[in-house]
């Protein structure tokens, strides 16, 4: 599976079960993709 992350989008290429498993792993709990993107954006702002 491949993942491409940019400030305004996330592109995941792979099988559906791989993508679901990766998103669940990143979230660590039940979370929507919108919430995850917000969290990633906030983390990037802290690093900059």
Give structural notes.
The chain has about 50 residues and is α+β, with helices and mostly antiparallel strands. The chain contains two helices and two strands, in the order ββαα. Strands 1-2 form a two-stranded antiparallel ribbon. A hairpin with a 2-residue loop joins β1 and β2 (about 10-15). The longest helix has 15 residues, at about 35-45. It starts with a strand and ends with a helix. The model has no long low-confidence stretch (mean pLDDT about 80).
Can you count the beta strands?
2
The main β sheet shows up as: 2 strands, antiparallel
The chain-level mean pLDDT equals 82
Low-confidence stretches: none
Sketch the topology as an H/E string, one letter per element: EEHH
Lateral strand order in the biggest sheet: 1-2
Structural class: alpha+beta
Number of helices: 2
Which band does the percent of strand residues land in?
Answer: 15-25%
What best-fitting shape do the alpha-carbon axes yield? globular
For the termini, the CA-CA separation is 28 Å
- Total domains, how many? 1
Share of residues in helices: 55-70%
Radius of gyration based on Cα positions: 11 Å
């Amino acid at each position: 599976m491949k993942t491409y992350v940019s400030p305004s989008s996330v592109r995941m290429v792979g099988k559906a079960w791989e993508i679901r498993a990766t998103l669940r792993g990143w979230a660590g709990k039940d979370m929507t993709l919108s919430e995850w993107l917000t969290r990633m954006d906030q983390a990037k702002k802290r690093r900059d």
